[in-house]
Structure formats: structure tokens, C-alpha cells
């Protein structure tokens, strides 16, 4: 569950779309208030898998900025490229993707490190939405993104999966959380969906961000999302960079 190869194999073998925990519709009311409104804003999904959560969120909020779908499984990233280009996403259609090694330098991509490998789907002038999507196959523990470059970071089950590494789970989760905090803009939100209860998760969040002088620079809160599926309680943790 914590290894790239395991996820890659899972996505190739299953060949099906999979939504971890719950879909966007289930938690829509809780999530919509976090969606940034300006067309300069950027949202990133860390460990997007084959989830449709972020696409549905962008559609529901008529998001006008840039959205980044990232995963260390290439198969998951390919899936996202397909769904963002598919006819059923007709409100959000794109011109053909532009695969590139190294990233073209223009204002839209200036927040990416030069080493990033991405595919960008640009808006088409005849479309209603102005959203632009980027697809990055990368490790969430070492993101090819500049400091303070994302307004909303979404993590749905990704820290949970990293924590399953028996030997290094805790240090890897901390590293991923540090990266999430590093890329947050001032006023930006990191939102995390998990079934881990606050006793354990709050201290993980606080300890991971202690290098940043956590209480001075961040505000950490949580709320219960209720019980779903087989009676498991889910939580939403929110880290705001002050
Ligand atoms: C539990 S699944 C959740 C997938 C998706 N967010 C959802 O809600 O269905 C965890 C995802 O995180 C990805 N992942 C795990 N560790 C990662 C890491 N260090 N860097 C990037 N992606 C990672 C896996 O490939 C997998 O797609």
C-alpha cells in the first residue's frame, strides 16, 4: 500500500476507476467553501489515483484556475488525463495535450520546477470554463513545485497510504506533510480526508510542521464527516497557512 509498484500494478490489473472512502457528492457541502475563486488560483490533488473527486469539485465550483493531478503511479496519471479530456466532461474540454520533458516557460507554468515532467491540457477558446489542468507523475514526498505555489492542496487517503510503510511510514508521512505545507500560499488550505481519529492525526500534523514554527504559521482544525460505508467515521483535517 505504500509502494509505487503496488499502486501501479493495482491500477493496471483492476482496469477500473476506484474512489477511496467516498465520492465528492457525499462531502460536497463541507468542501465547497475551500475552493478558491480567482482564475489565478491553483488546486493540487496529491495522490489523485483514479478518483473523480477533484474533477467533480472543479465542475461543481465552476473553478476557473489551474488544477494539478499528481500521483507516483503513471497509470493513475494517465487515467486522470483521460477523464479530463473525455466527452462526458463536456463542460471541461481541452485541446489536445502537450506532453513535454521539462516544462515550457510561460506564466502558467512558472510555479513548476524546471525538472518537472508534466502534461498540460490548455483551455479551448470556445469553451465556457477557463480551467487549465496539469498532470504530474511525481512523488508527493518531493514535489517538483515552488514554495507557496498552491492555494488548495487535497489529500484523500494519500498520507494514510504512506503510513502503511512498516519501516518508514511515519517519516515518509511527515515528509509529505512538510511538502504540502511548503507549497501552500499564505491563506492557502491543505485539506485531508482520512479515517484516522484526531488523537493520532492531530499530533502527526503538528509534529510534521514543527520546523515551520507550526503555531505561528499554521492553524490546524478538524471536523467529523460522519459515518459511511461499513460504519467507519471519517474526518476532514484542515491546515491553513496564516
Ligand atoms: C488510498 S489511494 C487514494 C486515491 C485517491 N486520492 C482517492 O481518493 O481515491 C492513495 C493514492 O496515493 C498515491 N500515492 C501514495 N504514496 C504516494 C507518494 N509518495 N507520492 C505520490 N503518490 C502517492 C497512490 O498511488 C494512490 O493512488
TrEMBL record:
Q: Which GO terms describe its biological process?
A: methylation
**Pfam families linked:** Methyltransf_11
Q: Which residues form the Methyltransferase type domain?
A: 123-191
Q: Could you tell me one molecular function GO term of this UniProt entry? A: S-adenosylmethionine-dependent methyltransferase activity
Q: Which UniProt keywords apply?
A: Methyltransferase, Transferase
- What family is it from? Belongs to the methyltransferase superfamily.
Identify this protein by name.
Answer: Citrate synthase-lysine N-methyltransferase CSKMT, mitochondrial
Q: Which organism is it from?
A: Lingula anatina
Q: What is the lineage of its organism?
A: Eukaryota, Metazoa, Spiralia, Lophotrochozoa, Brachiopoda
